[in-house]
Amino acid sequence: MISINNLTTVIEDKKILNNINLKWSSNQKVGIIGLNGAGKTSVFKSILQLGFFQNNSISYPANLNIKDDIGYLSENRGLFTKETVAKNLSYFALLNLLDAPTAAERIKFWLSFFKINELSDKKIFELSKGNQQKVQFIASIIGLPKYMILDEPFSGIDPLNADLFIQAINYLYENNTTVMYSSHQMNYVEEIANMIYVIKDGQIVESGTLNDIKNRYRTISVMNSKELEALKNKLAKNSLQFFADNNSFTVQNSHKLISDFKDYKIGQPSLEQIFKLINGEANIEKTI
């Protein structure tokens, strides 16, 4: 288990991370969600002990070598654009100290997995953004690390290719690579993660399994505009913060829902609705 304990990071008098506590167990696919600038990448860099993010607040399993045992797919891609796909992957295999037969076998497997065998001799700059991302993904996991950090792996990927990335993440997990990733697409987090952390302004503000988190919130639905205004007034009267989405309101679960809202249709929100409530988007109304 990799464990972050009360991690606080200050850079140039700005608090980047504030009292972060997080556990990354070998039986978990951890999804971290948050707005741009919330601190997701800073958490990753802290785990990797990179630059300003070196710290003493993280404990690692015995005999774990950060450089060799934790893979990292950065949000900023790093391929040699004037070299071919094959040369790029061979280079990253060499960095991972793979012998030639093992490297060739893994490169062949992953090119086939992502259905880009025919691009082996193409130069990186000749590829689409989506195919470049596939190559970058393969390069980052070619050594089959014990732990794998993926920073926005679904960025710029169409739904069909996103399915391949989901399959790849699950394949890694099933073959003893523990995965942590960030994403803005809540549906992919819901589909993959068995542990979720929500980060806001450098702090963990929500965590748990998907069901744990959903059970802490409720949606309250109405059928017409008359009920809509009545419900808004009732939410305000009960001092409940809510996110309004058409005729549905997402609120944090409380005993007031049982006693005061029993005449309304109460359901369970999506992770996206909860995320919007937590982050105070423009159409969230905060009560006094």
From TrEMBL:
Source taxon at top rank: Bacteria
Keyword Transport attached: yes
Chain ranges of the ABC transporter domain: 2-226
InterPro entries with a match to the protein in the record: ABC_transporter-like_ATP-bd, ABC_transporter-like_CS, ABC_Transporter_VariousFunc, P-loop_NTPase
Molecular function in Gene Ontology: ATP binding; ATP hydrolysis activity
Alphabetically ordered keywords of this record: ATP-binding, Nucleotide-binding, Transport
Matches recorded under Pfam families: ABC_tran
Transmembrane spans: none
Keyword ATP-binding: yes
Name of protein: ABC transporter, ATP-binding protein
Organism: Bombilactobacillus mellis
